[in-house]
From TrEMBL:
Pfam family name, one: Hexapep
PANTHER family xref list: ACETYLTRANSFERASE C18B11.09C-RELATED (PTHR23416:SF23), SIALIC ACID SYNTHASE-RELATED (PTHR23416)
PROSITE patterns (alphabetical): HEXAPEP_TRANSFERASES
Protein name, as recorded: Acyltransferase
Recorded coiled-coil stretches: none
Keywords linked to the UniProt accession: Acyltransferase, Repeat, Transferase
Organism classification: Bacteria, Pseudomonadati, Bacteroidota, Sphingobacteriia, Sphingobacteriales
Keyword Cytoplasm attached: no
GO molecular function: O-acyltransferase activity
Family: Belongs to the transferase hexapeptide repeat family.
Species of provenance: Mucilaginibacter achroorhodeus
Length: 211
């Protein structure tokens, strides 16, 4: 049986208050975490939820102006949402340009990941510039596992690109200017400017004619 209207209305009102408060406390806590991790950032970022950061003392993470992120299960509810992860290993560099918006993404960087200006990245997208494990089974199956020969190559996402939700972007990829990647794609080949790609593996669909 449905609860009385006024109770439901009060509940909705509490949700509005919570989300407004979330913007304030998210900014404060995230600022603290940015500083702890040596992140170069602008104070005009907008955050809902708290990201997870692990930036090596010899790694770099820089963020441009007007960065916007949603992090965690209560923000931008699109299913399978998680906290945002920003991880840079020793000697690695993550660079995010101006006016970039992301939701529940994971950026795991062992070499270099560069994101240009005006990029939008959908929910649950992951960007990896490394294989994590050796492709040589003899090395991979050592106990403890050796990281000898693990391959890492830079990832670049150019200005204006739009990455659909639940996409996986792998090492060595460049996604061109104003390119669009369809939701759920696995990208392991570079995408030219102004094209639409989608699928697993991602393939050319059409030119981006805005129609």
């Amino acid at each position: 049986m449905a609860l009385p209207y006024y109770i439901r209305k009060a509940y909705r009102g509490m949700r509005v208050v919570y989300y407004r408060a979330a913007r304030t406390y998210s900014h404060a806590i995230t600022t603290f975490k940015f500083n702890l991790n040596g992140v170069q950032y602008h104070k005009d970022f907008v955050g809902f939820g708290i990201p997870i950061l692990d930036i090596n003392m010899d790694g770099k993470f820089s963020i441009g102006k007007r960065f916007w992120f949603n992090s965690g299960k209560y923000h931008a509810m699109g299913g399978r949402q998680q906290q945002c992860y920003f991880v840079a290993a020793k000697g690695a560099e993550i660079s995010i340009g101006d006016n970039v918006g992301v939701t529940s993404i994971a950026i795991i960087c062992h070499s270099k990941i560069s994101i240009g200006n005006n990029v939008k990245i959908g929910i649950n997208t992951v960007i990896y510039d490394t294989d994590f494990h050796s492709l040589d089974a003899r090395i991979r199956n050592q106990i403890p596992e050796s990281i000898e020969g693990v391959r890492s190559k830079p990832v670049t996402i150019m200005d204006g690109a739009f990455i659909g939700g639940h996409t996986t972007i792998l090492k060595g990829v460049t996604i061109g200017k104003n390119a669009i990647v369809g939701a759920g794609s696995v990208v392991f080949k570079s995408i030219p400017d102004e094209q639409v790609w989608a699928g697993n593996p991602a393939v050319y669909i059409k030119d981006n004619t805005y129609n």
